[in-house]
Write a structure and sequence with these properties.
This protein has four helices and four strands. The protein has 120 residues and is of the alpha+beta class. The chain has one domain: Orthogonal Bundle (Arc Repressor Mutant, subunit A).
C-alpha cells in the first residue's frame, strides 16, 4: 500500500477520499481483471473506465476521468509482481503469462469455495 493512499481521491469528480481501508488492493485487482478481459489497455482507457459523473452544483453534471496517478501506480505494482508487461507494439499493457495463470488459479479457488453454498 503506497504512503499517499490515505491522502488521495480516486478522481477529480470525487468529493471524498475512499472510505475502504483496502481500496488500493481492490482497484489493483479490478485493473488486473480488466486486463484479463481486454488487452492491451493503457492508462488513458482505464481513466475513462473508472471515471464518473462530476457534480457541479446547480449546473448539469459532466463526465470526468479518474485519477491517472492511481491507475499508473496500480499498473506499476502489477508489473513489479510480474503479472503485467508493456505491450511490445502499442503503448498499452497486457497481462503476462504468469498473471493469467495466477488469475485463473484464484478464480478456480473462489469457484470451488462458493460451490457448496449454491447446493444448499
Amino acid at each position: 500500500m503506497p504512503d499517499w493512499s490515505d491522502l488521495v481521491k480516486m478522481g477529480s469528480y470525487k468529493e471524498l477520499a475512499p472510505i475502504d481501508i483496502d481500496w488500493y488492493y481492490t482497484r489493483t485487482a479490478s485493473i488486473a481483471r480488466r486486463l484479463y478481459i481486454r488487452s492491451p489497455t493503457g492508462v488513458g482507457a482505464l481513466r475513462r473506465v473508472y471515471g464518473g459523473s462530476k457534480r457541479r452544483g446547480v449546473r448539469p453534471n459532466h463526465f470526468s476521468k479518474a485519477s491517472g496517478s492511481v491507475i499508473r501506480k496500480a499498473l506499476q505494482t502489477l508489473e513489479a509482481i510480474k503479472w503485467v508487461e508493456k505491450h511490445p507494439e502499442s503503448n498499452g499493457r497486457i497481462l503476462s503469462r504468469q498473471g493469467r495463470k495466477d488469475l485463473d488459479r484464484i478464480a478456480a479457488q473462489i469457484r470451488q469455495s462458493s460451490t457448496p453454498e449454491r447446493e444448499q
